[in-house]
Each structure stands twice: as structure tokens, then as C-alpha cells.
Design goal:
Layout (H helix, E strand, L loop, with lengths): L7 H6 L11 H20 L2 H15 L9 H12 L10 H17 L2 H15 L6 H13 L3 H10 L6 H24 L9
């Protein structure tokens, strides 16, 4: 299995299948509120505040995937990069390595069916085009629904995000809307380019 590297887009990447319960307006409201806070922190706050918002959301979906003792290292690198220091990576190698080690340890513990489901999810995530994250959540939901209930419980234990797919879908819908809106604005402003689009 190719282990995905974590990076800034992952914070907003995760984002339910038509057979899944419909999203409540509160899910979308919460996602809009979150992205409003992110944009305000980016525009008016400090990079520390921005990191804290993004990291709290990441930790909500993936608690303890990044070892606690590396949080400050991660934050320092993120803040330096966000402040324009391009010689510093968004995510330090030591943090990436620690996440890979944790993921490998989890893969050693979960059974074969769970490993297969995670591999399918990883393949789906690697094919996600920018601005189509909500569709990806649908695909993840489909993979998740095809594993047996005990395996689902095990996966949710290790990856709580799989038990929060409605919330994830709401985040994805709002992220998709924002991405497409920004993309359209940049397209209509000839000569202007937003890095990463």
C-alpha cells in the first residue's frame, strides 16, 4: 500500500453515498463556519491561529496520528512556511516519518479485510482531482460499506473519520464550492494566478 503523505490539502481534502443519511443543514453550517474561521485566520489572524484551526480539525478526524511530542515541531515548520520561508517544508520529515510509522503499526494490527479496504481508499484518494472532494467521500463511503460490521468498527477505532463521514462530506462540499469559486475568480482575472490552482 502506498502510504499517503500528509500536507496542507489533506486538512481540507476529506470531505456520502446516496444510501447514506442526508446531510443536515447543521453539518454544512458547521463546515461553512470552520472555513470562515480559516479564511479569517489567514487574512486577519496569526499563522499560529491558522495552524491551530487546521490542526484541531485534523486531530478531530485523525486523533493521535501525529505523535503529541511532534506537534510543536510541526507547528513551527508550518508557521515558518506560511510566513513565506520556502526553505522550510510545510510538514517536517520527522513528522511525516512518524505518521508513516504509526500507519504501518496500524496496518500490522488490523486484519486483512481492513487492510484491503484501506488500500482501496488510498487508491481512491490518489485519483481525486482538485475541487471534487465531495465525490471522493462518496467513494470512501462505498468502500467502507462493503466491509463487514466488525471490520468497520475496527477501522473507526483506528480512523475515527470513517465514523464521521457526514461531517466529512459537509467539509468537502464547502471546500469544493470554495475551490471552484476561487478558480472562477482567478480565471476571470487575466494575468492573476493564485498559487496551487
Amino acid at each position: 500500500m502506498r502510504l499517503p503523505t500528509i500536507c496542507l490539502p489533506i486538512f481540507i481534502m476529506f470531505l456520502v453515498c446516496s444510501s447514506h443519511p442526508a446531510l443536515g443543514s447543521s453539518d454544512i453550517d458547521e463546515a461553512q463556519k470552520f472555513f470562515g474561521q480559516v479564511f479569517n485566520a489567514e487574512k486577519y489572524g496569526t499563522k499560529d491561529e491558522l495552524f491551530d484551526l487546521l490542526f484541531d480539525k485534523w486531530s478531530h478526524f485523525f486523533p493521535q496520528l501525529i505523535p503529541h511530542e511532534l506537534n510543536e515541531t510541526f507547528k513551527k515548520s508550518f508557521v515558518a512556511r506560511a510566513n513565506g520561508n520556502t526553505s522550510v517544508p510545510w510538514i517536517p520529515k520527522i513528522v511525516e516519518d512518524a505518521v508513516v510509522i504509526r500507519l504501518k503499526a496500524i496496518l500490522d494490527v488490523v486484519g486483512e479485510e481492513a487492510r484491503h479496504a484501506l488500500e482501496q481508499i488510498d487508491v481512491e484518494l490518489s485519483r481525486t482531482p482538485k475541487g471534487k472532494w465531495a465525490i471522493e467521500v462518496d467513494r470512501i463511503q462505498q468502500v467502507f460499506e462493503h466491509v463487514h460490521a466488525p471490520v468497520q468498527e475496527s477501522l473507526v477505532l483506528w480512523f475515527p473519520v470513517l465514523g464521521q463521514l457526514n461531517e466529512l462530506k459537509a467539509q468537502a462540499i464547502v471546500a469544493d464550492r470554495l475551490y471552484m469559486g476561487i478558480h472562477i475568480i482567478c480565471r476571470d482575472l487575466r494575468g492573476f494566478r493564485l498559487v496551487g490552482l
